[in-house]
Design goal:
It comes from Gilvimarinus japonicus. This is DUF2489 domain-containing protein. The structure is a single chain. It contains four helices and no strands. Helix content is 70%, strand content 0%. It has one domain. With 111 residues, it is mostly helical.
């Protein structure tokens, strides 16, 4: 069965709510969630400069050098340990600059 464009956008918006909710309750790593929300930016039927999603594009850009998500498997144990403090600081910073946008995504699309 083929999905309409509207159905696709609705599905992506629901995924954005799942990710943002998981980031808020801690079930999704905050930086991993930010990366996914950044990638969903073009899939949810909003202008590319939407304030909520743009916040996560910034977080993703500022943390793309860190071993986050599935990429961690390719990093040595020593490198992972070396970056752990920076990852923790980056999570704190990311929450400072995007927590309200995370809540906004949940509120906007949680229908």
């Amino acid at each position: 069965m083929k999905m309409s464009h509207e159905e696709y956008i609705e599905r992506q918006r629901k995924r954005a709510v799942e990710v943002a909710s998981g980031m808020l309750d801690g079930s999704i790593h905050y930086l991993e969630g930010a990366i996914e929300l950044s990638s969903l930016r073009f899939e949810v039927g909003l202008p590319e400069d939407d304030k909520d999603f743009l916040a996560f594009t910034g977080v993703s850009s500022e943390t793309d050098h860190l071993p986050i998500g599935s990429a961690r498997q390719f990093w040595s144990k020593e490198a992972l340990e070396r970056h752990e403090a920076e990852i923790e600081k980056s999570i704190e910073w990311a929450k400072e600059v995007s927590l309200s946008e995370c809540k906004s995504i949940v509120a906007r699309f949680n229908a």
